[in-house]
């Protein structure tokens, strides 16, 4: 993850890990967390997303604005009078993986591609945005919205 790598290089972090935990909540039965041990002895525990994802926390953060905008635009088409000031991501799931998707190394994928379905609430409507990721061979990935459906 880019945030973690930069924090380690700068000496701000001793280490960081992501992990999943199950909950008793029907709407969000699985959460992905990031635990960061800082150099000054502090510890941070952050919820990265609700549900499963292959994208790293940094990839998700960098792509979520584009995906949220797509969700809002689709919802606004159905309800032009909507003047929402925020769009909330609700759930994530892996929609598809390519046969050549590499195994995870150092928290990321170096070859292949995958798609994730991200559910948002915008203008009172649930919108699913499908995001396609293609690994770039260097630990990053390009991302683009490939589908937006309104529930």
**What is the CA-CA span between the terminal residues?**
32 Å
Low-pLDDT stretches are none
User: Proportion of β residues?
Assistant: over 45%
By secondary-structure content and strand pairing, the structural class works out as: alpha+beta
How many domains in all?
A: 1
Beta strands, count: 7
The average pLDDT score comes to 94
Global outline: globular
Question: Could you describe the largest sheet, including whether it forms a barrel?
Answer: 4 strands, antiparallel
Percentage of residues in helical conformation: 10-25%
Tell me the strand order in the biggest sheet: 4-5-6-7
- Report the radius of gyration as a whole number of Å: 17 Å
Describe the structure.
This protein has 151 residues and is α+β, with helices and mostly antiparallel strands. It has one domain (2-150). It has helices at 2-9, 57-78, and strands at residues 13-22, 30-38, 43-50, 88-97, 113-122, 125-135, 141-150. It has a four-stranded antiparallel β-sheet with strand order 4-5-6-7, with helices on one face. It has a three-stranded antiparallel β-sheet with strand order 1-2-3, with helices on one face. A hairpin with a 7-residue loop joins strand 1 and strand 2 (30-38). It is globular, with a radius of gyration of 17 Å.
């Amino acid at each position: 993850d880019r945030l973690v790598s930069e924090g380690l290089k700068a000496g701000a972090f001793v280490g960081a890990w992501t992990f999943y935990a199950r909950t008793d909540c029907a709407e969000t039965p699985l959460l992905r967390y990031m635990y960061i041990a800082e150099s000054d002895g502090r510890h941070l525990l952050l919820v990265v997303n609700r549900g499963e994802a292959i994208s790293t926390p940094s990839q998700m953060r960098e792509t979520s604005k584009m995906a949220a905008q797509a969700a809002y635009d689709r919802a606004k088409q159905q309800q032009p009078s909507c003047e929402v000031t925020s769009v909330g991501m609700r759930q994530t799931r892996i929609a598809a993986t390519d046969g050549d998707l590499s195994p995870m190394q150092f928290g990321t994928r170096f070859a292949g591609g995958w798609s994730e379905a991200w559910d948002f609430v915008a203008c009172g409507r649930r919108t699913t945005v499908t995001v396609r990721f293609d690994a770039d061979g260097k630990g990053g990935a390009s991302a683009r919205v490939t589908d937006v459906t309104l529930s």
